[in-house]
Amino acid sequence: MADTADTSVELDEETAELARQNAARGNTGLPEYISGLVRDDEKQRTVFLSGAREVLDNWGSAIDEALGEQAA
Q1: What predicted TM-score, i.e. pTM, was given to this entire model?
Q2: Cβ atoms of 31 and 45 closer than 8 Å
């Protein structure tokens, strides 16, 4: 079993109700639902930053050149 931390999050009632409904729809508890959102967010961030790095590595000089021409 993973270590857990007791964390309190204040949400407006509408958001809290949506979270409860989404957790129930996924047949999971609210803590598990929120944990999944945080983990998914981190995965998406990692994928995005990796893609951005790849674009800069492959096209950075062309982008710099194009932007330099626009500034002139």
Answers
A1: 0.69
A2: no
> At residue 36, what are phi and psi to the nearest 5 degrees?
-65, -40
Task: Give a yes or no: residue 43 inside a domain.
Answer: yes
Q: Give the span between the Cα atoms of 7 and 15, in whole angstroms.
A: 17
Q: Which whole-number Å values give the CA distances from 67 to 11, 58, 59, 61, 71, in the listed order?
A: 43, 16, 12, 10, 6
For the stretch 36-52, pLDDT in tens is 999 999 999 999 999 99
34: containing domain? 13-71
Q: How many domains does the chain have?
A: 1
